[in-house]
Amino acid sequence: MPPPAPEQLSRTIETLYRSESGRVLATLVRLLGDLDLAEEAMHEAFAAALESWTLAGIPDKPRPWLISTARFKAMDAMRRRARFDGAQRDLVAHIESRVNDAPLEEEKIEDDRLRLIFTCCHPALPPEGQVALTLREICGLTTEEVARAFLVTPATLAQRIVRAKAKIREASIPYEVPAPQELPERLNAVLQVIYLVFNEGYSAAAGAEVTRAELTGEAIRLGRLLTELQPEPEVIGLLSLMLLQESRRAARTSPTGELILLENQDRLLWNREQIAEGVALVEKALSSRRFGPYTLQAAIAAVHAEAESTAATDWRQIVALYNQLVRIQPSPVVHLNRAVAIAMRDGPEAGLTHIDAVLEHGELANYYLAHSARAEMCRRLGRTAEARSSYEKALALTQQEPERQFLQERIRQLK
User: Over the stretch 159-178, which tens digit does the pLDDT of each residue have?
Assistant: First the structure.
């Protein structure tokens, strides 16, 4: 392949970083046994790619090139340090032997990310550190994106990551998928990580795009790996939920990028193969009677997926499922979603009453969808001033450009 133009190469490397950095890092951790060293080497490899590919062109398989370059960069750095610190020489020799002998088969690389997620979800780490570290270091989300997912400041999130990495180092936490008897205590954190990665891809926290297909695709891939490893009802339920949500991606935006609400989507664009697989999986999870919140959310998504239109949707069944979900996961967001479903079943007045009850508790004061949902109820009721106020609150809280355009248009339409 001939060398690309500098601007094209920069864009290509940026795209590769977003889609491949997590897998490259995970493999380097397996090879080097140190997260900080692996991260430093990975960044050096991407910098080397910018220089090398300008002359030689982009290789047919960029990921193995990046991994090979990074491991040689890491070994060079360790050899330089060993010259000044004799205590490190035996360690360098051991790591060098392991790195040189380690295979780079595609299957091995594909499994590395799941191994590293289990490492970062070790029970010795605090729960908030487990998820933050995994999302930032393995799944490629920025500190700001992860902070928004947790509703904390980037500085607070960065401190959690530093502490978690230090704990892995101090406790010598092994880089491996745990033994079967150890899986249950780490499974919930791993499921949460995969779910949050999917959510960031399904509805990006900021930027010009509604979705990030590389993140939803990666989350589904990890969900499939985890289902093979541990086919528990909630693992199956999460995979079902992701497939059913992803099935609507093509219909969620217009050709020019505008957001399209569920009620206005062209259901002919929904991916029927993903829907069929998702429905079969959720039925399997429900049949076990040991299901939890992911399976119930998948069941709700399945009701939407099988309906011919918003009007034909079985809102009574959806409210009933939300009632079950509230009992086992009474989070403010679940209460908000239940309130919207009640509005579809009983009308906007009933929905507004429930939304206001959720907002009174204060946890969703900075959650733009809560204010957007309230605005929608007020708009339907003809309470224009209240609708405008709530839309403006939602607009001030979102950083996703299509969402902003949608809310601005809603405000313009109010009379």
Answer: 998 898 888 888 888 777 77
> Helices marked H in 134-182 — which ranges?
143-150, 154-171
Cα–Cα distance, 252 to 259 (Å, whole number):
6
Distance CA 186, CA 197 (A): 17
d(CA 215, CA 199): 9
pLDDT digits (tens, 9 = 90+) for 109-143: 456 777 888 888 888 888 888 878 877 877 777 88
Q: Residues, the chain, total?
A: 415
Spatial contact of 35 and 71, defined as CB atoms under 8 Å apart: no
Q: Which residues pair with 207 in a beta bridge?
A: 400
Residues 37-67: pLDDT tens digits? 888 899 999 999 888 888 888 888 888 899 9
| Closest listed residue to residue 192, CA positions, set 106, 271, 132, 262 | 132
SS3 399: strand
262 near 304, Cβ under 8 Å? yes
pLDDT in tens, 278-296: 999 999 999 988 889 999 9
Could you identify the residue written with the tokens 């010259």? 83
